[in-house]
Amino acid sequence: MNSIDIESKKFLGQPKNFVSIFNALLFDGKQVLKPEYLKDENSELVMNVSSKHVDIIKRYEDGTYLDLFVIESQSYVDQSMVARVMEYESVARMRYIRQNFKTHVPMHTRLPMILTVVLYVGESKWNAAKRLSELEIIHPGFEDMFNEFKLNLIELNTNHKYNTGEKATQDFFDLLRMIYRKQILKEDLDREFNRDALYFAYVVTKNKELLNIYQKNEKGDVKVCRALDEMFEESTNKGIQMGIKQGIKQGIEQGIEQGIEQGIEQGIERGVKNTQIKIAIKMLVRNNQTLEEISEIVGLDLDALRELKKNI
After folding, report:
1. Which of 107, 169, 273, 309 has the CB geometry, 3.0–4.6 Å to 20, for a possible disulfide?
2. How many CB atoms lie under 10 A from the CB of residue 305?
3. Looking at residue 197, what is its pLDDT?
4. What helix, strand, coil percent values describe the chain, rounded to 5?
């Protein structure tokens, strides 16, 4: 069991955090599912499914129905995930039937609902199948007979902002988005984050700045964004310098074939142009300066800045 699996169980296994994942996916953060109705499931059924690598399984009971919820925290893109989730749910249903019915399932019997959510915390884009039809070959003429299966997937590296309705999980979701996008919004600069969410974000991203902040603050909520903003700024500056150097180098290499003088000029111009665009995007995201001010600082005309702003 790796560190992400261990911390997933600690952080996401807390009842209020656990239900908030499902409330985010199903109800846009409305507190429809309540943590007080959650129970840890230690039955043979769950032990059997857990042995097949499901991270957290709990039972949700609200008087009239029994649901089995599963969260899988997936830190790398797994092409077979849709098939794995189908297996988890099939095993769980068959184990329930064998344990509760001696010979056959009586007419009109309803089984507990089993709902699986894959929480993808990786930085790279999820490019694996999200539906069974994207994994299997479906021959022409068989479409109507094919039984589709859809993956319930939460991706934290996209532009979509999930609302969990719970501070700890919301802080974790937002921290990962900030780190992966390398952007801090102006309104978040003095925001305080849940300390457990901060540590879980460190375990997932291996971002040392998060660990430093966590170790310096022994309890309570923690301000993170200004330190991250400075780190992103430093990273951007290094990238700018590297971009200029690469542009010059590329221009020099082109200049060997097309004329050294012309190549160096083109390389410098390309590096400077990329630099101007990167700085302008960062200033537009912060949204604390006018387009005229940004134009004067970075040297891009207003039409170019307006076009950039449309695409952010």
Report:
1. 169
2. 21
3. 93
4. 55, 10, 35
What sign does the dihedral 28-34-40-41 (CA atoms) show? negative
Amino acid letter, residue 12: L
Of 2, 12, 23, 114, which is closest to residue 56 (Cα–Cα)?
12
- State the pLDDT confidence band at 270, using cuts at 50, 70 and 90: low
pLDDT of residue 69: 59
- CA separation for the pair 305, 38 (Å, rounded): 51
Number of neighbours of residue 223 by Cβ within 10 angstroms: 13
Cβ atoms of 264 and 255 closer than 8 Å:
yes
Helix (H) or strand (E) holding 193: strand 192-193
Nearest Cα residue to 118 out of 54, 173, 165, 161 = 54
Look at phi and psi of residue 57 and say left if phi exceeds 0, alpha if psi is from -120 to 50, else beta: beta
pLDDT tens figures, 76-111: 788 888 998 898 888 888 888 888 888 889 999 888
